[in-house]
Design goal:
By secondary structure, the chain is of the alpha+beta class. It is built from 16 helices and 15 strands. The strands form three sheets. It has a five-stranded mixed barrel with strand order 4-8-7-13-12. A five-stranded antiparallel sheet has the order 6-5-14-11-10. A hairpin with a 4-residue loop joins strand 10 and strand 11. Helix 1 packs parallel to helix 11, helix 10 runs antiparallel to helix 11 and helix 12 packs parallel to helix 14.
């Protein structure tokens, strides 16, 4: 007969519960220490709790590009907007996509919301275009021979060639007139005329040499004549749908001048870096730009062409999102770096440098909604959420004490362990992955209280069932665990699956609820396996619980336990065999 194996505990038992308890206690101490060491002792709060501004941007369809709104361009836009907002000194902004065409930007309190709104919505399509004609911002009267230039007060620029280390200052454009036939000859790319010294003054006297304008040119001149730059909507509409390789009409950013521009010669992608600087000598703010190698060559080529022209055709317009922010004159060939100066404030110079440094958005966006939550309102919502959580926890405690009595101590200690783990992990996830505790996330944490308590109840009821069957406490604890474990795992798996699906198919604040629910569900499994079960095993060895004290919650009499199970040996009756004859 085989000898019984030694050292084998009860089925499903845990011979050394102290190890599991030591492990989870060490983990709790480590997480708490890491929280204090990182300096983030409270979870990061979302906009709806801490206060701030939430901006919803909607992508607009691009003319001739029906497939422009796609996942790649949306992700690129999110990355650029995030860098822009962080460039304002905001380190806790949230930028994420919502659906296929929306981007949500959450900016916490303490940030200039207007400045941030200007940054996130600006497309930042930058082009350097040659100026063909410049006039005042108001519509040109019908029958006017030529639009008059109005360049006083416009920003100026200078550029430096790193090879020659010489700076060439340019001055704002002076008043000038240009006949329509001179504009006609310059509308096509690389077709800007280079007048000689002898014919520069005769341009307006030789109408016979000017070819008849084509319909596109006539339409562009008509649009330029009718453009009213004093109307903000007209200023924006003037640059919509214009391709870089086509001529365009544009207004100054102040609306006091309008321009007829040639095709773009240099784009914003050719700018390597841009910085806002204060010129001590002139006492003004300016934006300095460094070009890439390719951009420097392009800039040298366009300035070489423009330096041979007469005013205003020796100007290049710096067009940002269809508006001219500067239109300096060029008197000689330039390359290397350039400076944009003029009527800049510190903020406007920093804004322009910011959008130039971090690039242009691949899509155009319009503000769909803007929601501002004050800090006071956020505090009220947080207080309401905490009160709701406290009420829910109190109801759970009352139920546990009234029904399970002494077992409620194990449940409360387990809830405390789960609370410590949840709080410390949420506090650490803020700086680690940008997790922000919003109101839906608080709701998820409140729901988790019920999920965690449900796991305890499942285990307690399994133990009670074993006691009702007539077993003593210690065997009942071990025999009840395998069945309770399966039930808890299945229940938590369903909850985690629901949270994962909700997190993947939703966006925005609902994801906070799903993330918190999933996190607390995982922690429920950890706490039940490494804390509740070992603690139950240790408590079962104490006299208070093992003796079935009336207040232990495991009193056999109150549970209606059966008499102890007894085994009886089967006695086989002797069999009478017939005698052999």
């Amino acid at each position: 007969m085989a000898a019984p194996k030694k050292g084998r505990g009860p089925a499903g038992g845990q011979s050394r519960p102290g190890r599991a308890l030591a492990f989870i206690l060490i983990a709790m101490v480590a997480l708490t220490g890491g929280m204090f060491w990182s300096g983030h002792t409270t979870p990061r709060l979302g906009i709806d709790l801490a206060g701030g501004t939430s901006i919803t941007l909607k992508a607009k369809s691009q003319p001739g590009k029906p497939d422009a709104i796609n996942e790649t361009n949306m992700n690129t836009a999110v990355s650029i907007i995030e860098r822009r907002v962080n460039g304002l000194g905001v380190s806790e902004a949230e930028v994420q996509t919502q659906g296929k065409s929306n981007i949500i930007v959450n900016i916490p309190k303490g940030t200039n919301s207007k400045q941030a709104r200007d940054q996130v919505g600006t497309t930042a399509q930058l082009y350097f275009r040659p100026v063909l004609t410049v006039a005042g911002g108001e519509p040109t009267p019908t029958g006017s021979a030529s639009p008059s230039a109005s360049g006083s007060g416009k920003p100026s620029a200078k550029a430096s060639d790193p090879e020659t280390a010489s700076d060439s200052k340019t001055t704002p454009s002076a008043s000038a007139t240009t006949q329509g036939r001179a504009v006609t000859g310059a509308l096509k790319k690389d077709a800007t005329p280079t007048p000689s010294a002898s014919d520069g003054a005769k341009t307006s006297e030789t109408p016979a040499a000017t070819p008849a304008p084509d319909p596109a040119t006539a339409a562009l001149e008509k649009k330029f004549t009718a453009l009213d730059c004093t109307d903000p909507e007209a200023r924006v509409a003037a640059g919509v749908g214009v391709k870089p390789e086509d001529p365009a009409v544009a207004c100054s950013s102040e609306g006091d001048a309008k321009y007829l521009l040639g095709p773009a010669e240099v784009s914003g992608t050719d700018v390597d870096d841009a910085k806002a600087q204060f010129d001590q000598q002139r006492g003004i703010w300016l934006v300095s730009m460094e070009f890439t190698d390719k951009g420097s060559k392009k800039f040298q080529t366009i300035t070489k062409k423009l330096s041979a022209q007469q005013s205003p055709m020796n100007q290049f317009a710096i067009s940002l999102d269809g508006e001219v922010v500067s239109a300096p004159q060029v008197n000689e060939t330039l390359s290397g770096s350039a400076e944009i100066s003029g009527s800049f404030t510190q903020q406007s110079a920093e804004d322009l440098a910011n959008v130039l440094s971090y690039g242009a958005l691949p899509l155009s966006f319009s503000e769909d909604t803007v929601t501002t939550v004050t800090a006071a309102l956020g505090g009220e919502q947080l207080e309401a959420g905490l009160i709701a959580g406290a009420i829910g926890l109190a109801l759970v405690i009352i139920y546990l004490v009234a029904y399970y009595r002494g077992l409620a101590l194990i449940a409360l200690l387990s809830l405390g362990a789960s609370g410590i783990l949840t709080y410390t992990i949420m506090a650490l996830l803020g700086p680690a992955i940008g997790f922000a505790l919003n109101l839906p996330a608080v709701c998820g944490a409140i729901v988790a209280i019920g999920i965690t308590a449900d796991s305890f109840i499942v285990y307690f009821e399994r133990v009670r069932d074993e006691i009702r069957e007539g077993r003593t406490l210690r065997p009942a604890i071990e025999r009840a665990w395998p069945r309770a474990r399966r039930t808890i795992l299945v229940s938590d798996f369903v909850s985690f699956l629901a949270a994962a699906v909700l997190f993947l198919v939703t966006v925005g604040k609902v994801q906070g609820f799903a993330f918190t629910l999933g996190l607390t569900t995982v922690l429920d499994v950890v706490v039940v396996f490494l804390f509740t079960k070992p603690l139950m095993t240790l408590m079962g060895r104490t006299k208070f619980f093992s003796s079935g004290h009336p207040w232990s919650g495991l009193d056999p009499k109150r549970l209606g336990a059966k008499p102890p199970l007894r085994r009886s040996r089967r006695v086989n009756a002797p069999t009478d065999h017939p005698k052999e004859a």
